[in-house]
Design goal:
Blueprint lengths: L14 H7 L2 H4 L3 H17 L5 H19 L12 H13 L1 H4 L7 H37 L4 E6 L2 E7 H26 L18 H7 L9 H6 L2 H27 L7 E2 L18 H24 L13 H24 L2 E2 L1 H9 L5 H10 L4 H18 L8 H7 L7 H4 L2 H6 L9 H17 L1
Antiparallel strand pairs: 1-2, 3-4
Helix pairs in contact: 3-4, 3-7, 3-9, 4-5, 7-8, 7-13, 7-20, 8-11, 8-20, 11-12, 11-13, 12-13, 15-16
Bound molecules: arginine.
The site of arginine has 10 residues, from α7.
């Protein structure tokens, strides 16, 4: 296809160079945003008298037809076009001749592409927030079913203190809620229209940038035309939000993988989200969680790729910036796919409550509570800590737990011990007693569930 800019050149572009230069195979994704942006631009050109109302209307209605034809499959992208912007403009001109050629007045592909990506990412961001909501809802439901399910809480992957399984799950809900609001923050900064910045310096035409911006749902216009076409910080921000979503999904996946292992056996994954082995008949592999964990590296890579692309670029537009799209699209697509499969996998998880409870009984997980018991009876904490340390040492040798040592034996360590100690250090009491705000106490868990519900209803 003849290039729009062919007039200045004596020779056609080398075929390899042409292929290397073109971006239509990936930026065709933005056809809807490109066309909507062009419609708003044409409306503004008409309203300001830069082109006639008749021409403006003709352009707008034909762009509408092009959009409809693409959506119903009647019009296919011409992969020999350089990019989506050139394709749409060429198609318009093919359909309405010279009038179509007026669309690009007071505009450049530099501000056009900067506009299209913002609109595209804005739409995608809303979709991802919708998927995050579904995930948060699934976590909340699992948590509500498991308020009284007791498991060991860990530090250093060593059993630390007993907790409610719901408490552990809700920790992830908090992370994903922040991810949701982080996306909103990034979109709020991104939502300014660069259109009208033109190539870099603005234009001599008396355009109305604000009219275009408000027609397209932007909160305003970018203030400096060079900045408007030069930066892709909004892509980087969104990609770093994507990276954090993956960080959270990956940690959650890691735990699901551990919990599903024979070593832990805290959960059973639904058969429909696991795979078998081609050689070991006993295997039930958590592939989905592993792949989500694996794809995290890829999303981090996309972020690093774009940061690196941008770091040495002089202002304003450089062709290097065309590389933004594959990176940001991949990051978005990957997160979308991961969320899509992770949520139903989570919904299918069956907690093996007895195993969790048994694990919480071992490992002297209630030792802190035994020390607190002595403190309540009047012993200073340091002395209580020491006494309990001695008791734990005894229990390890005698193959006892803190709940199985008889009271007579306890009394040998301190005469402050009475029968009530067993209730005080039962796992249920240990969890229930942690009443501080945000703690694992059952009542606190219910408040956390309410907090998540409020978020889902109001965000
Ligand atoms: N396909 C280009 C991109 O994605 C559009 C902008 C081209 N501008 C230019 N001056 N060559 O960045």
């Amino acid at each position: 296809m003849d290039k729009m800019w062919a007039g200045r050149f004596a020779k056609a572009l080398d075929a390899l160079a042409d292929d290397f230069n073109s971006s239509i195979h990936f930026d065709c994704k933005m056809y809807k945003q490109d066309i909507k942006g062009s419609m708003a631009h044409a409306a503004m050109l008409g309203a300001t008298g830069i082109i006639s109302n008749e021409e403006s209307e003709k352009i707008i209605s034909t762009l509408g037809e092009i959009l409809a034809d693409i959506e119903c499959g009647k019009l296919e992208f011409d992969m020999s076009s350089e990019d989506i912007h050139m394709f749409v403009e060429a198609e318009l001109t093919k359909r309405i001749g010279d009038t179509g050629k007026r669309l690009h007045t007071a505009r450049s592909r530099n501000d056009q592409v900067a506009l299209d990506i913002r609109m595209y990412l804005r739409d995608e961001a809303a979709e991802i927030q919708g998927s995050l909501h579904k995930l948060i809802e699934a976590i909340k439901n699992k948590a509500s079913e498991n308020v009284y399910t007791i498991m060991p809480g860990y530090t250093h992957l060593q059993r630390g203190q007993p907790i409610s399984f719901a408490h552990h799950l809700l920790a992830y809900a908090m992370m994903f809620m922040r991810d949701c609001t982080r996306i909103s923050d990034a979109v709020a900064r991104m939502n300014y229209s660069p259109l009208g910045s033109c190539a870099l310096a603005g234009t001599t035409y008396a355009t109305d940038r604000r009219m275009v911006a408000s027609a397209l749902g932007f909160d305003g216009v970018t203030v400096n035309s060079i900045d408007g076409v030069s930066d892709r910080d909004f892509c980087v921000e969104l990609m770093s939000a994507m990276s954090l979503i993956m960080t959270h999904l990956s940690r959650f996946s890691e735990e699901i993988i551990l919990w599903a292992s024979w070593e832990f056996k805290f959960i059973e994954l639904d058969d429909s989200f696991t795979t078998g082995s081609s050689i070991m008949p006993q295997k039930k592999n958590p592939d989905i969680a592993e792949l989500v964990r694996g794809k995290t590296g890829r999303v981090y890579g996309d972020l690093m790729a774009l940061l690196t692309t941008l770091k040495g670029l002089p202002l304003a537009y450089n062709k290097d910036m065309q590389e933004d799209k594959e990176a940001v699209f991949d990051s978005i697509e990957t997160v979308k796919k991961c969320l899509e499969v992770f949520t139903p996998m989570l919904e299918g998880i069956k907690p093996l409550k007895d195993n969790m409870y048994r694990a919480a009984e071992g490992g002297f997980i209630n030792a802190t509570d035994l020390a607190d018991y002595l403190v309540k009876k009047g012993l200073p904490f340091r002395s209580a800590y020491k006494t309990v340390g001695t008791i734990v040492g005894y229990a390890i040798n005698a193959n006892e737990t803190l709940l199985s040592i008889p009271i007579e034996k306890y009394k040998e360590f301190s005469d402050l011990f009475c029968e009530d100690l067993y209730k005080e250090i039962s796992l249920e009491t240990c969890v229930e007693k942690r009443i501080s705000e945000g703690g694992t106490g059952f009542e606190q868990i219910k408040k956390q569930i309410e907090y998540v519900e409020d978020f889902l209803n109001n965000d």
